[in-house]
């Protein structure tokens, strides 16, 4: 008996490029599973802070990542995220947690600890996975790989509007600084740095709307799935 290969679509790119929104739209349209890999790094960082572990203590954080008790529960408004049975859906989205996640993500043992957990999300009828190394390291045989970018200013503007809508007071200059630093950290680390896979399709979304990007990616996905 031959088992059917699960189609995987990867969306990688820098922070704030809109990967999460597009991944969600695509997964909904195709009725695929979804993996927000950044949330696993965010959860690891949050758990490390909770446990008072120094963010450079590679072995302890890798151990934490390997044994992390997390649950993703689908709801009408997206995924609800539980860490050790506590709802951290909002908490993991904070800017400082993103920055901490970027730090722990640079530790090779932590990346290794999360590898199999990420791969286990791949299941029929298919998976949409977003992150930094989905197409290069985690799912190198993905059916379709998208590398999504947007200018630094546009990404900061999108993040600003998102946070503002949630009632969070932010300063756009601070967001630009934050994104720049995270881009640098994520692209310059030795292990699985942020970069397009050789067979990725590059998509600059700076002047595109969410609907336009969703349509474009959905079109590409349908071509490959046909
Ligand atoms: O996508 P995000 O902003 O939620 O990710 C938070 C951080 O986690 C990001 O700055 C880098 C890291 N990350 C990673 O190294 N590899 C991934 N596949 C996803 C996220």
Polypeptide structure, described:
- The protein is of the alpha/beta class.
- It has one domain (8-214): Rossmann fold, CATH 3.40.50.
- It has 9 helices and 8 strands.
- It has helices at 19-30, 37-50, 58-66, 95-104, 108-119, 134-138, 152-165, 172-188, 210-225; strands at 8-12, 33-36, 70-75, 78-83, 86-87, 127-131, 144-149, 201-204.
- It binds 2'-deoxycytidine-5'-monophosphate (DC).
- 2'-deoxycytidine-5'-monophosphate is lined by residues 15, 37-38, 41-42, 98, 101-102, 105, 131-134, 182, 186.
- Overall mean pLDDT stands at 94
CATH architecture: 3-Layer(aba) Sandwich
CATH fold topology: Rossmann fold
Strand order of the largest sheet: 2-6-1-7-8
The CATH homologous superfamily is named P-loop containing nucleotide triphosphate hydrolases
Percent of residues in helices comes to 40-55%
Question: How many whole angstroms does the radius of gyration measure?
Answer: 17 Å
Number of strands: 8
Q: What is the count of DSSP helices, taking H or I runs of 4+ residues?
A: 9
Structural class: alpha/beta
* Separation, N- and C-terminal Cα atoms: 23 Å
* Strand and helix order: EHEHHEEEHHEHEHHEH
Instruction: Estimate what percentage of residues fall within beta strands.
Output: 15-25%
Q: What characterizes the major β-sheet?
A: 5 strands, parallel
Overall geometric form:
globular
Number of domains: 1
- In CATH's first tier, which class applies? Alpha Beta
The small-molecule ligands in this entry are: 2'-deoxycytidine-5'-monophosphate
Poorly predicted regions are none
